[in-house]
Every structure is written in structure tokens, then in C-alpha cells.
Amino acid sequence: MKLCGTGRGRLKGSQGGFALLAAVAWWQMAAGAVLAAPDPRAEVATRQGPALRLAVAPPGSPHSGHFIDGEGKRLRLMGMNLSGMQYVAIANAATQTNWGTQLDTADGYPDFSALARWHANAVRISLYEASWNADGPNGRCRDVFGRKGKEGEMANPDRLGRYRADVKQAVEAAAKAGFAVILNLHNAAPSDFCPSGDRMANKDNSLRFWTSVAETFKNAPHVAFDLFNEPHDMGAKDLDLRVSHRLDYAFGTDRAGKPKKVPHVYQTAGWNDLIAAVRATGAGNVVLVGSLVYSGDNTRWLAQVPDDSKPPKGFKGTWSSQLAASWHVYPKWGTSPGDAKYLTLNNNGSIEKAREIVAAGYPVVITEFGDNNEQAPFVTLWLPKFHAAGLSYMAWSWSPPTKIHKKGREFQLTQDGQGTPTPGFGLAVQKHYRCVATQISTVACP
After folding, report:
1. Which residues lie across from 394 on neighbouring strands?
2. How many Cα atoms are found within 13 Å in the side-chain-facing hemisphere of 164?
């Protein structure tokens, strides 16, 4: 199989929205600027005005392997996942927004003042491919997995007729609050299928999705693109996700949450395909890519670095790859607090490999991590280690347990829309975020 380049090369292109930021960074290096060690509090502060930009530090920069803001200062993402947009539009929930009831706010939209009280500086918003592509109430997809009831019926993935408008509203509200945003393709499916957790992005619909999303947000430099949530169950453990592969069935879960395979031959969209679609719009935004085993196995990430060496269409100046790694971190599946293996990183994840990725010049964002709602031994152990390794991290998720599962026991940060933390996971994350944001030394942060 032909391997692609690492994408860290610097090429000259033509004009784009990130030219000024790149010019500032390169001028600093050319002048031999020596930057002081970053204040950990400043790293995680929200940004305003021209500083509200997210970029990968160029090779040779003192901040290599990390993000920088619009002023060339180091930026670490420390935030939460806002859940709801990835499936509510196709669900039967009778709600007035595409967030459903998961955020538990009066108007159903994200409350960034509550997030700010936790000292977060970023949010990750998970999207439903068919809802964005529908672009209005006349869109249709085929419910082959029976999520709404009878299998095979046509469904409306944008029943409120404003899915895109709700995404834009959240992105704009985040900017006003000084937050960075990661937009994540969470649910995708080939053909006219309604997505329900398929294994990888596809050429049928995902390229159109990212072309449209990138075109919409290419002038919003605080927005990054997480190209596909969790690649999984695709065969070989060393499968090259950079290129397209032929699959013979679509994967999803039915209304009861049981796995289901629907026979259908289609081509996946590889990382290189997705990056090319984004850059063809002129978008220079940061792109994140994960790995196999639900983005949990980061051990082969450096062996499969996608190609982001070509500058965006119309870019002028010196282009530097805007590629970062996405990593999902959870306790060992099937275990509970107190079990011997509960504190083990799931899916073969490795903090040593994460450090190697950073050392190679690529920021690592833990785009999902979680723990038990009542106890938090996993987060208590690992969050300080992730911080010390220079990683960014986004907790899953900002929503009360009863808004998702009546007996929810894990992965929920809040008890209500005001941000009252759950006694285990939520409180542990809140304490860590507040400590990092307010202490000059983070050595003692929980």
C-alpha cells in the first residue's frame, strides 16, 4: 500500500484567512524571538477579539506540538462536549431546538455563562450528517436501522427546518463568550440511510458534508473540524485510515440500541479525502483526525499521519499543516470503580504515544473522556497526567444524567442546566479546571 507524506512540509500558496497569523508566527522565529515559559493560567483563558483564533504552531516554533491563538501565544483547549445535535434531529423527541432536552436550559440552547463558571474555554459539538446535508424541512433519509420505529421508512432529518441555523447559533454564541469550538462529524452513513453509528466517513455524503461545513465556517478561525468521531470495526488492526476502503455493509444500532448490519457496498472517505474537501473551500481551519478502535488506540497514529501539506485554495503566504490528533479516553470497558482494571486506558490507548505525537509537532486533543457520576477515580488519576503531558481535553458530556438515561451512572458532568456538578465525575472535572485556571503552579491540581 502506497504511503503518504507526513504533511508537515511548508508550501507556498495563495491567499487565505490564516495568512496574517502564519506571518506573525514566522516573523517571530525569523527574528529569533525567545518566548517565556507559558503561564498555565493564560494557556486556558478564554480569548477575545483577534486573539480568538485556533492554529497549530508551525515547525520550529517554541510552541511546536501545541495550539497558538491569534497573538501567537500558547493555547490549551479545556472544555466540554455539548451533546444532542448528533441524533435529536432524527429522534421522535418533541423539542423546540435540535439540542433536545439534554442541556436542561430554559430555551434549550447552550448556556456559555454556566460553562465559563467551570473555567472552560472550548466546546465540542457533535453533528448528524443527514441533518446538515438536508438543509431544511424537505430533506429525507431512509430509516434502515429502525431508530424511529418501522425499518425502511423515510424520515425527516431536519424536522424543525433549522438544523444549520442552530449550529451557527451555537458557534456564534461560543465566539461571544471567547470559546473555541470543535465541530465533530459524529454520525454518518452511505446512500440515503439515516446514520446510526457507522464505522467511518463515506464518499456518498461525508465529502459533501465537510465541503459545506468548511465553506460555512472558513472565516471563523476559532472553529476546528473533527473529521470523524470514532472509526471502528473495519477489519485489520493496522488498516490505513488515510485512504478509501470498500465496505460491504453499513453499521448502526436499532431503536433498542442493539447493533445491526445492513448489507450495502460503499467506499469510505479516508482522512486525505476529507482534508482535501475542506482545503478546497479555502478553509485553513484546524482539522483533527482520530484512530481505529473508536479513536481510542493512538499507538499507530504517527504511522498514518494524513497529508495536509497542500495550502487551502486561494491561500497566499507560507502554509503550515493545521493537523491535530483526536483521542478518546475512557476507563476499561466492562469494569466499574473498584475493579482492578478500571483505571486502565481503554482500547489500547497510551499516554506515552500521546507524548510522542506532541513531540512530533502535532497537538493532541482528548476530544472525549469520562468517568462514573458518583465516583471519579479514573479522572482523578489521569487528568493531572494529561495536563502534564501538554494535552488538551474535552469532557463527555455537559448534560444531566436524567436527560439521557433515567438511571444514568456515568459520563455526565452536570445535575442541571445551571452546571451543578455530579458528585463524582462532574465535581472532579470542575475542581481540576478551576485549579488549572487559577493557580500559577498546577503541580498540586487534582
Report:
1. 79
2. 16
pTM of the model: 0.91
What own/partner pairs with CB < 8 Å and gap ≥ 24 does 247-250 have?
Answer: 247/199, 247/200, 250/144, 250/189, 250/190, 250/191, 250/193, 250/198
Give the pLDDT confidence score for residue 25 in this predicted structure: 37
134-146 pLDDT per residue, tens: 987 778 999 999 8
Cell numbers at 10, concatenated: 511548508
Superfamily of domain 10-32+40-438: Glycosidases (3.20.20.80)
**CB 407 within 8 Å of CB 379:** no
Q: Give the pLDDT of residue 234.
A: 86
Number of residues that make up the chain? 446
The domain spans of the chain are 10-32+40-438
The answer to whether 120 touches 433, Cβ cutoff 8 Å, is yes
Residue 61: alpha-carbon gap to chain centroid:
25
User: What count of Cα atoms within 13 Å lies in the side-chain half-sphere of residue 251?
Assistant: 15
Between the two ends of the chain, the Cα-to-Cα distance in Å is 45
DSSP 8-class letter at 445: -
- Residue written as cell 458532568? 413
3-state secondary structure 379-441: HHHHHHHHHHCCCEEEECCCCCHHHCCCCCCECCCECCCCCCECCCHHHHHHHHHHHHHHCCC
Q: Which residues does the chain have with pLDDT short of 70?
A: 1-38, 92-94, 149, 402-408
What grid cell was written down for 143? 430509516
